[in-house]
Amino acid sequence: MRLRNILPFALLLVGGLAAAPVLAQDAAPAAASAASLLENPTMETNYILLAMAVLQVVIILTLSGIMKTLGGTGTVWADYLKGRRAAMVLLVIFAASSLDAQAAIPGLAMVTTQTLMYWLISTNIIFFVIIVAQLSVVRGMVRALSGPEEEAARKAKEGDSFADAILNKLTRTVKVEKEQDILMHHEYDGIRELDNVLPPWWLWLFYGTIIWSVVYIFNVHVSGTWLHQADEYEQEMAQAKADVAAYLAKSAAAVDEKTVVALTDASALAAGKNTFVTYCKACHGENGEGNAVGPNLTDTYWLHGGSINHVFTTIKYGVVEKGMQSWQKDLKPMEIQQVASYILSLQGSNPANAKAPQGELWAPEGSASPADSASASATDSTAVAVVK
């Protein structure tokens, strides 16, 4: 094969490889611990792909020589690319621009192992398509050179090929020269109809649906071996609810003093109340009114800040110098969130025998400070990390 026939494809391949780094910049980097070959290829893999590409090039050159021997040009794929030189020129220009981009970006690798593997795979696929096309052309040339009589005699002697036999069994088509035998007598506007049978593959599918319906009815409605669709739906919905609950529980377990938010739904507040009665009533009263040990939790005065973050922090870490223990070993983060939300829900409830206010009037961050507390303290009470 002449050099001019190899040159177009060589330019296409080299231009594509040179453009690879620019394309690779848009791809997400593969994880270092990935076990997949596509995500973490080795140079040995690329060497194998390169060897396959070289072998296919040899096959392409060999088939081109055979085609020339049979009277063809032997340059089918080169002729195909000849009319597409403009696209190749654009690809080479794009490759040159990628090289300029590499020079502009310090430390940019020329071609990564993964990118090179992708391009070698693409190259092997292109070579394989060329080989298949060449084999098809060679087969057609052999048939043309052997003549229709010799081809018919060969077919009669050898019979149908394996592929033809499978196709005949699947379709049961009638050969063109025998269509006169199944031609129906009626005619409409010059159109005649063939009395073809239904394709066996269609009949097999139809019979299969009948068999499947019998199996389904017996297993679902007679023996009860399989679940009914309604029961299966209910089962899947129950499983979905369990999965959602497990996800929410897992998310709740990750709550901390920085990410906690106040809960307002009745079920969460009820759970928080149960926790409060179990662990907090002794020091803060059954309704949060406070007693000789703990302060009142229902007024707007707080010793250490009244936001959900502050309340969560105090319950989690405690205030040891004031006699409040840390509850992070006894309560889960979700339970601390629930009881903190319940405590905040007690604001303004005014229970009987409420203890006198302690601390400073709490003003949520970003709101105006009340007038009666303006002179109570010159410091910002929101800076304290814990609540009473």
Keywords:
388 residues; mainly alpha; Cytochrome Bc1 Complex, Chain D, domain 2; two-stranded antiparallel sheet; elongated; disordered N terminus
**Beta-strand content bin:** under 5%
Number of strands: 4
Q: Give the mean pLDDT.
A: 74
Low-confidence stretches: 1-8, 16-35, 90-110, 368-388
How far is the first residue's CA from the last residue's CA?
A: 90 Å
Q: For the largest sheet, list the strands in their spatial order.
A: 1-2
Tell the overall outline. elongated
SS field, number of helical segments = 12
Give the structural class.
mainly alpha
Q: In sequence order, what are the helices and strands, one letter per element?
A: HHHHHHHEEHHHEHHE
Task: Walk me through the topology.
Layout: H1 3-25, H2 43-69, H3 76-82, H4 85-104, H5 113-146, H6 148-158, H7 162-171, E1 183-188, E2 191-194, H8 200-222, H9 229-253, H10 266-284, E3 301-302, H11 308-317, H12 333-345, E4 360-361
Antiparallel strand pairs: 1-2, 3-4
Helix pairs in contact: 1-3, 1-4, 1-5, 2-5, 10-12, 11-12
